[in-house]
Amino acid sequence: MVRFVSLALLLATWWLASLFAGPLMLPGPDRVLSVIGAHAQTGDLFFQLGVTLARVLAAFTIAMAAGTAIGLLMGRVKIADRIGDPWLIVLLNLPALVIIVLAFIWGGLTEIAGVLAVAINKLPNTVVTVREGARALDPELDEMARVFALPRRKFLWHVVFPQLAPYLAAAARSGLSLVWKIVLIVELLGRPNGIGFQIGMAFQLFDVTLILAYALAFVVVILIIETTVVQPIERRASRWRIRAT
Amino acid sequence: MRPVGEFGQLEVRIAHKAFTAASGERFDVLHDVCFELGHSEVGALVGPSGCGKTTILRIIAGLETDFEGTVERRSSGRLGMVFQEPRLLPWRTVEDNVRLVAPGIAGEALASLFEVLDLHTHRLHYPGELSLGLARRVALARALAIDPDLLLLDEPLVSLDEALAERLRAQLAALIESRPITTLLVTHDLQEAIRLADRIFLLSPRPAQMVADIPLTTPRSARTEREIATIVGEVTSRINRGAPASPHVTPVTRHDPTDL
Question: Which of A138, B166, B178, B198 is the most exposed place for a label (fewest CB within 10 A)?
Fold first, then answer.
């Protein structure tokens, strides 16, 4: 309920601001909506959304999987942490744009280069978060697993990952939003389709309505993913907590 | 007496164990702790709080490897352990906690184990919903579910109220009686040790040394309250005065501990 009121307030603010700024600088919600509708009818909107979403999911999956593995290793093994830490600091402070441009120069203007560039941008972030989680693992449960000789896979699945769940959720949350923002830059610089490419076109035509239409459509997609995928998973993972209190 | 070594299931020879404190200072915890347990024998390590009993269990379980000496377990088989804290996975139900370590357990065996320990109504509960006494019982069920060759119990009844401790002690005694499992339990309570064990290993305050190895000849079920009181009296007086051995008490080594 509160969320709806808050959202309505945001729309109202937008609409009011559009009245002052004029339709060229800031078109109102109604105009943006009608453009979304028009592009949806031709199917173009869904194609562009789909292409971008596929890149987001690919980069997100790579970054989360590799980041979790590296973070876990660095959090658990001291020598791995000491070796990996300087790399991590370099990667964390490398601007997204530098990574993207280098990826396109070295890998050509290809799909793989683009997706990898996004994944590398997100990777250090995941590593840092998961490493924090791995450092906070309960040593008592570790010992229990050792005494009962739990096989490695069971140990990871039943003992480690449930403890990492809050950290993984935090990494996924911030990851999804970060990844889609960087994917747009990649598309702007070196891809022939996707939301980023469309927005680049709209920029050259100074078409603010089109820019907002595509941006908004993708935000809605991310919101749907958040509520239908991320939140249910989180609820399921913390089921024991709710019942425990 | 049974020839030790031939039937020995567990042979512990710890010459020396020290810890290094955060300040860099080293302090001795164990010094010359040697004992053996035969097949399906129940031993109790008894000593004052903080004397290093838990460390002995941890060494046997393989959790402490930095010590001088040897630990030999005859059958390289399964090890069941009940830690002082239950150490259950809070995100798994009682049943899943047990099944996790014993994936092969038959439904019937699990049901009867839960029945004996009065846990059958709690199968689907999460550990956060259990009292300490219940959680301890789940930890005990978990250790027994793997059908261990060696069972290690670290103060299984500590910080429970007397009535509950009494009940759990009876359950524990019944379980130990019904299964031929070599068991080593740690306690600071001599009475408890006498009620549960076949053999008592008395330890001195830190650094812990063996004071005496006391086999109890009367079968567990036949020990009356009076007999238990007599044994307690004999052991304490012997510790305090270095009194001669009684028929129940066979001294092995003699030191003079001041605190028990």
Answer: B178
User: Hey, how many other C-beta atoms are within 10 angstroms of the C-beta on A241?
Assistant: 14
Residue B241 is predicted with a pLDDT of 53
Q: How far is B17 from chain A (nearest CA, A)?
A: 19
Q: Which among B208, B209, B252, B214 has a CA at the least distance from the CA of B236?
A: B214
**Tens of pLDDT along A37-48?**
998 899 888 999
User: Which residue segment(s) compose the domain that A143 sits in?
Assistant: 47-244
- Asked whether residue B250 carries a pLDDT value surpassing 50, the answer given is no
DSSP3 helix / strand / coil % (chain A, rounded to 5): 85, 0, 15
CB of B57 within 8 Å of a chain A CB? The answer is no
Structure pTM? Answer: 0.79
Instruction: Identify whether A238 is part of a domain.
Output: yes
First to last CA, chain B: 28
Q: Which residues of B fall within a CB distance of 8 Å from A162?
A: 89, 91
Burial of B173 (0-12, 13-18, 19+ CB in 10 A): middle
Q: Which of A205, A199, A189, A183 is nearest to A45 (CA)?
A: A199
Nearest to A111 by CA among A193, A198, A201: A193
Give the pLDDT score at B207. Answer: 82
Number of domains in chain A: 1
CB contacts of B126 in chain A (<8 Å) are 240, 243-244
| Separation CA A81–CA A72 (nearest Å) | 10
**What pLDDT score was predicted for residue A126?**
95
Q: Is residue A204 part of a domain?
A: yes
Residues in chain B: 260
Establish whether the linkage from the previous residue to B103 is cis, with ω within 30° of 0.
no
Question: Is A37 inside a domain boundary?
Answer: no
Going across the sheet that includes B210-215, the strands are: B79-82, B150-154, B182-187, B42-46, B199-203, B210-215
Q: Quote the longest CA-to-CA distance of chain B.
A: 54
